[in-house]
Write a structure and sequence with these properties.
The complex is a heterodimer of chains A (about 220) and B (about 120). Chain A is mainly alpha-helical and about 220 residues long. Chain A folds into 2 domains: about 70 residues, Rna Polymerase Sigma Factor, Chain: A (Orthogonal Bundle), CATH 1.10.1740; about 110 residues, no CATH class. In chain A, about 60% of the residues lie in helices and about 0% in strands. Chain B folds into 2 domains: about 80 residues, no CATH class; about 30 residues. Chain B has 5 helices and no strands. In chain B, α2 crosses α4. Chain B starts with a helix and ends in a 17-residue tail after the last helix. Classes of the chains: A mainly alpha (about 220), B mainly alpha (about 120). Chains A and B meet through α1, α2, α6, α7 and α8 of A and α1, α2, α4 and α5 of B.
Chain lengths: ~220, ~120
């Protein structure tokens, strides 16, 4: 399928607002405006800068081919991000054919310790029970909170982080994630649960100021 | 004295929650409730347990905050991140896009610049 390139307007003319009915075509501006964002998006899912760059390039080339189907219903950035996301899903679909045992073991020991209770098995260990977070709501307005949260998410093992990002950040339905990564719903639940336990613990220590155990700090 | 009260309170709570699945299982169920609807019985067990167990109730509130925050993670983290795509990578991608517009699908442009290739 070939698409006749439309000539872009000279720079500085016309509104720069993204959701316009017929966006002018200037793919090189995509790189300037959204390159870092898309790169960051790919990098947090691949953890390899060279591959992240390749995927951004592939996504932008694909966007160029099908730009006439962009109807301005979403912003340009979310349109491009959507294309990148699909490219990454295709990649995961091809690559994610085996569940690694260590992914299912992640945070398993820590979980066992959290619920180590002599008198009442599987109830909270008093020392590990969640403490009250002060001003939890206000945290979301703080830049530092987001830095800590991002740092915590980067500490998850790659495949566990991938599952968590697909589910919680990209809001992909669980059955779709199972299909893409070829994992059973049960394995998905285990990984998500442990990721949540680990992130909660990491935030508690690094943001809400609980006493860390030695391996906890970001 | 305070210690004793605390201990009794803790013990009492644990006794009451013993009527429902243990905290560890409740936490797994709470996490799973984000993935699929729970059965009525399970939902009831969860509610009774959370009404009695402060630790689990706190955990669940924090899980909800985590869930809320996660939606914004991509935007926020990217906005603040110092991670930038390397300038030469950007240039390379621009070059590829230019080539693709001039001669779609070929990977080379009409001016014969060898930078238009895949390498």
């Amino acid at each position: 399928m070939t698409v006749k390139p439309r000539h872009s307007a000279p720079p500085g003319t016309g509104p720069v607002e993204a959701p316009s009915p017929v966006p002018r075509l200037d793919p090189e501006r995509w790189v300037d405006d959204h390159g870092d964002y898309l790169f960051h998006f790919a990098l947090s899912r691949l953890r390899d800068p060279a591959r992240a760059e390749d995927f951004v390039q592939e996504a932008l080339l694909a966007a160029l081919k099908c730009h006439d189907r962009f109807e301005g219903r979403s912003t340009e950035r979310s349109w491009l991000t959507g294309i990148l996301k699909n490219k990454l899903l295709d990649h995961f679909r091809k690559a994610g054919r085996e569940t690694v045992f260590t992914d299912l073991e992640f945070f398993a020991d820590e979980e066992a310790q959290m619920f180590e209770n002599q008198a009442f098995p599987d109830h909270w260990n008093v020392a590990a029970a969640p403490s009250e977070w002060t001003d939890a709501g206000g945290a979301l307005d703080s830049e530092e909170f987001w830095r800590v949260f991002h740092g915590c998410s980067r500490k998850l093992p790659e495949r566990v982080a991938r599952v968590f990002l697909l589910r919680e950040v990209d809001d992909l339905p669980s059955d779709e994630i199972c299909a893409v990564l070829n994992i059973s719903p049960n394995n998905l639940w285990v990984m998500l649960h442990r990721a949540r336990l680990a992130l909660r613990r990491c935030l508690e220590v690094n943001w809400f100021g609980a006493q860390p155990s030695p391996e906890d700090t970001v | 004295m305070n210690g004793l009260v605390k201990w009794l309170k803790w013990r009492g709570i644990v006794c009451l929650t013993a009527l429902t699945p243990p905290c560890r299982q409740i936490m797994q169920l709470a996490s799973r409730s984000y993935e699929q609807p729970l059965s009525t019985v399970t939902r009831l067990q969860l509610r009774v347990h959370l009404g009695l167990c402060g630790a689990c109730e706190r955990y669940l509130r924090q899980l909800e905050l985590l869930h809320e925050a996660s939606g914004g993670l991509a935007e926020q983290a990217a906005a603040m991140s110092s991670t930038k795509m390397a300038a030469d990578a950007k240039e390379r991608i621009k070059q590829r896009l230019r080539c693709e517009r001039v001669a779609p699908g070929t990977g080379t442009d009409n001016h014969g610049e060898d930078t238009c290739g895949d390498s």
